[in-house]
Input
Amino acid sequence: MASRKDGAVAEIEKKIIEAFEVFDHECNKTVDVREIGSIVRSLGCFPTEAELHELLAKVEEEEPTGYINLEKFLPVMTKVLLDRSYQPIPEDVLLHAFEALDENKCGYITKEELIKYLTEEGEPFTEEEMEDMLSTALDPETNTVRYRDYISMMIVDET
Amino acid sequence: MGNCTSLQPLQFRRLALFLSLAFKAAVLIQQWYRRYVARLEMRRRCTWRIFQSIEYACEQDQIKLHNFFSYLMDHFTPSSSKERDFISRMFISGESFKEAELEKYCDYESMEVPDSYTGPRLSFPLLPDHATALLEAFKQKQQLHARYVLNLLHETRKHLKQLPNISHVSTCYSEEVTVCGDLHGQLDDLFFIFYKNGLPSPSKSYVFNGDFVDRGKQSLEILIILFTFLLIYPKEVHLNRGNHEDHMVNLRYGFAKEVMQKYKVHGKKILKMIQNVFCWLPLATLIDQKVLIIHGGISDTTDLDMLQKIQRNKFISVLRGKKRKESNKDVEIQEINGESKVEAESSESESDLSLSPQPRPAPSITNRLEFSKWLRQTVQEQIEWCRQLVDSESEPEEPTYSSVVSLTELDAQCWTHQEEWKQILDILWSDPMPQEGCRVNTVRGGGCYFGPDVTDKILEKYNLQFLIRSHECKHEGYEFCHNRKVLTIFSASNYYEIGSNRGAYVKLGPDLVPHFVQYQASKTAHTLTMTQRISRVEESAFRALREKLFAHTSALISAFKAYDKDNTGKISLSSWAMAVESVLHLGLPWRMLRPQLVRSTVDGMLEYKSWLDDLAMEQRSQEHIQSSLLEVIYRNRSNLETIFRIIDRDHSGLISFEEFRQTWKLFSTHMNIELTDDGIDDLVRSIDFNKDGNIDFNEFLEAFRLVKQSQPILFQRPR
Output
């Protein structure tokens, strides 16, 4: 670590440590490797699964123990935040993504289509993830996802 | 998708383009969604932390209260008989009646049940029909007549008295044993358990692992149902005592209030009986000699043989004040120096509310003179006894409190009361921790934190397979730790707020393999989405947190000012986080919580003054900066309420000016609050709304919100 720290870097480190500690159940500066995704994402990053795996490779021990040490995580995550890697996805980009799946440009995607795309394409959702998303996104009367409304609702929730 | 080979090149290109777009779009959506879920998860955990830290901080308040009592014992020399009476009342609340007196005081036989009463009528011995009638009645929100309540309590006590300290259950009689954890007055959860799992019966054994009461609003109904089943199926139903089966705890956490509200005439008697019944509850249950069930946990000194033999009913309340560790040392040193043993002043005595000698029977309260005299004498006795405790290393134990010393109990008598009491405290209050070792549980103020090595040691010592305990709320209703050797089972769902957690119960067959059933007994919870559930619980948590912040306004301002030397009214996020933690000591991730607590300004700085003003307005109080006194009262209101309830022995809800003045004086001295007599008088006068010389302390507790509307004397006083 650099001997002379910027105030900004120190702030970033404190933020990371705080987020880390929320998942550190045993209070011994380690977290379960499966929680790293949540930690990285709650610090404002939007990595893809592939990018997450890349990051994990940098913070894991030589012999993976199933746990990640704060010691290794901190410098890597600090750099991520300083470099502003894994940029957030703005609302309009998200909208375009939904529109791209809406072949007929009718403003909605049917339940079956959405399931097909999200569980077969890209970095597929698990059944649980799909169900979770549908529980909020699906309009039960039409069995479709009106994505504009959905996005607006989710963005409000975020703030 | 169609057969590629049948497509024209252009169409094929279009399709390929679309597919690659679809792929990219899917990735984007998934990426975005996963981030959303992660944020939710973080919010959920933060919310949980908030609730837990506030809950434990409240328990710490309980410690402070008991420290207050110790402080009184140590430092307060009553200067008048009035003051002496007053003090002694705080200690005598733990008195226990002798058997005959209790029967007489809580007599029910002369109580008439009017014909207009449509609730269940109990006759003894109880039958399964009585149980179903009760369940039905409680579902219809009916109330059991006080006569039957008292009758039931008498019979329950009779039954419990013959039970050993450790109950034994065998899975060869009933194939399965169901173990339930904390219920905390949440009757819906008990109904659900019975609905899903079936009622207790000769083929269905149950163990209820303590904390039946407090916090929830139907603690009494739960007790009635559990005691009823206990009497109908004595072989199949087993109850363990929890740390909330303790009248001192009940005064603070709502059970005492509930009983008094539901039974305005006979509530006092009912509470008295329950107090007695609680101390007769068994301490632990053993299944097949292999699985130990206790409410809290264990410590490295847990001794099941001792636990088997002690007289459990001596421990009416298990809570106590500060330990006086130094006192013994002082005495020793003096001896070494050849001086005679120093007469231990009352300041060196153990302030121990639970182990005081049984006072002589109180004379009738109508004879005030006699009563004061009795009180004074009893206090003297208490102090004497405490003095003796300090010197008692070599002396035989005082037999004044133990009723009968039979030959078989001679073994028991060679343990000191300290040791016996510690055994019980440990099993009712301890929590497991991930690290090895065993250390004092400072968060709760009682029991210890025990590590996996302690678990291993005790399991090996007694040839057990694993422990089942409760005492801690778990998100999924249950949780394993210590390498699956300790199971926490918690049966109160939505404990902090609707949607906060599931409840669970566990079933064990002869193979002793646990099977869990989880539930959330609230219709609303099911219809909410995950987001809505988390938001709702979060809202509740933040409300509680903001209240806490408000209560520490003055301290926060001082802390912020220390980081804002130029008095700009703004500080950085980092300074804010450090300042808040230094005042509240909750150990929360403040930077994560900041967005929901404070707006930040454009340059990333926080405007703390306006933030605190906003908080105050939310709490419907103004001029908060000047009313540091009210702040202190607000902050300590649960403690004050508890003290008031102890003073208000006839549970009338009223205390006199004098009593209030005394209380406040003592309390403020202890808490190092500067206050003149005039200040107290003003405060008292401003609270007595109906000007009758009495304070309805329920009103008082709301007063800090209303004072501004009535007489804002305090606010106008320059500080």
In short: The longest helix of chain A spans residues 7-23.
